[in-house]
Queue: 3 jobs
Job 1
Amino acid sequence: MRLRTLFPLFALLLLLGCRPTAAAKAPWSPSARSADPSPTLMPWPPLPPTPTFLPAQTPTVTPTPSPTPTPTPSRVTFLFVGNIVPARCVRAAADQRGDDRYIYAEVAPLIRQADYAFALLNSALTSQVPPTGCMRTFLLVGDPAHAATMAWAGFDAVNVATNHIKNGGDGAFLDTLEALRGAGLAVLGGGRNVDEALQPLVLTFGGVRYAFVALNEIEERSFAGQDTPGAAPLTEANLQKAMQAARAQADVVVALPHWGPEYHATPLYEQRRWARRFVEAGADVVVGNHSHVVQGMTILDNVPVFYSLGNFVFDQSWSLETQQGAMLELTFEGRRLVAYRFIPVHTDGDGTVHLAPPDEAQAILQRIWAASPPLATPTWEAGS
């Protein structure tokens, strides 16, 4: 029993004794442990691989075109005045002084401020007819030298589509044209024949073309004919012809009719009818005259109509109304009328034009407004 127990142990020892002799293992020491390679520590979770930085390429930038700015329309101011009649007592006073520039001296700075100023001449300028002196007569003739005075005052163009422009006959009218053009003034509303008289005056400011058409309804003896000089007659056919020519050449058309009866502040039917015809034919603004007193204004299909500016230079000192008038200033930005301004004036019997003092200026504007449909209050400038 004991022998059986020891036999397996003996067999196991025998087997171990038959294995090759193993090399002696060095005893453990700290230095021996430190000679083992250190473990590599790996982070967790694993990091992404370190990126490789290549030289940066300059990106191609396609510029976005800036929107083209809308140009600001150029601003231009036109100035208009009432009847200028350097005849009778006005001429007599100027002859006595030896210089007629006194007539415009006070208002010349305002005239010159405008980009373009229009005079309205309602008398001939000729030496063919002797001066009448200071007397009541319907023969209205002025000194040809007055053309240079108007240019000195700041006027750029003269409208001759008026009823007294041929006083003295065809020769006197041609003298008038010669005097005006000799003074460097443009002429509209008259010519050596009706075709020339109907031609518009076309001006360009800031790339915008402005045409001015002047026609006269009053006094057939003043009219130009096919072969005779004079003012452009206001007829339906001539209105259409002149307006068509203006519209073909310009972006903005201003009509300048000489119309209606004298001394009526309220525009009468015939003027209103003609105003409608001008608007229908394409006028952008209508500035009329003749009445020797200021008249009202209106708006027709968004077109302003100024019926009359009264007198500017005349000797009609027999009533306050005929001594009062207004300059009219129209301001455009490109094709658009953006402002208008009345500048009330008072004229003495010798023709001297003054800026109306505040009380009188207000009275003049009230008369204009009383003869006008309800509109916004007009702007105005009074003398100091």
Note: Confidence is low (pLDDT under 50) at residues 1-46, 376-384.
Job 2
Amino acid sequence: MKVLGISGSPRRDGNTDYAVRRALDLIKERLPEAETEFIRIADHRIEHCRGCRYCMEAVECIIKDDDLDLLVGKMHDADLILLGAPVYWWGPPGVLKDFIDRTHGFYPDDKRFAGKKVAVITVAAQSGYPTHEKTMSWLQHYGAEYVGKLRLRAREKDELKRKPRQLKRLETFAANLASTLQ
């Protein structure tokens, strides 16, 4: 089984990266046979959606000179997709929103991610979780099973590492995700 952790944060090694990586490590501890992989959307080239709607006919994006197909391929190979992102003005950061928008071409194929499980980690200073989580759960439209969400509070770099209660919640969340794979 394969678990793919995706960070949608533009901040390298920030709270979101840490939370997703830590969750992957905890899942691996519970399921040693699981293969885990961590990727950062910000480390990949994702062009903006052009709004041309070519994808609605072809069920694929007309833009071919970026990393969208590579990342989508990794998602297809995974049994569980763990998606993490900070909340920026009640939504995901631009780097992740570009990626989400580019999957618009899958819209006619509402079973593209059937059989996949998806979970969401949101990191915010105070608020904005519900709207953000709705956006982050977009894979449900493509048939993925939504198996959980975790809301973490942190803003400053490395703040999450200094919050034992938040880390305990992350540990419980990862254990629950591991149980969905057994």
Note: The mean pLDDT is 91.
Job 3
Amino acid sequence: MKALDKAISIVGGATRLAEKLDVSSMTVSHWRHRDNGVVPANRVIPIFNATGVTPHELRPDLYLNPTDGLPAQEARA
């Protein structure tokens, strides 16, 4: 399962994720289908905050290590 699909599943659907990010459901659909599950860099942390899906899972090209982008207390856990 792609990380974006995991995030969508956690919140209960693409529309719910869109609401949490204050974007249209069409935007989430574009990330999912047109962009092949790759979310824009500026949306990685908001998705993490809304779902717990880590920045590394969402964009391993930007967050190379599993703890990159995590708050300090979570990175140590």
Note: DSSP finds six helices and no strands in the chain.
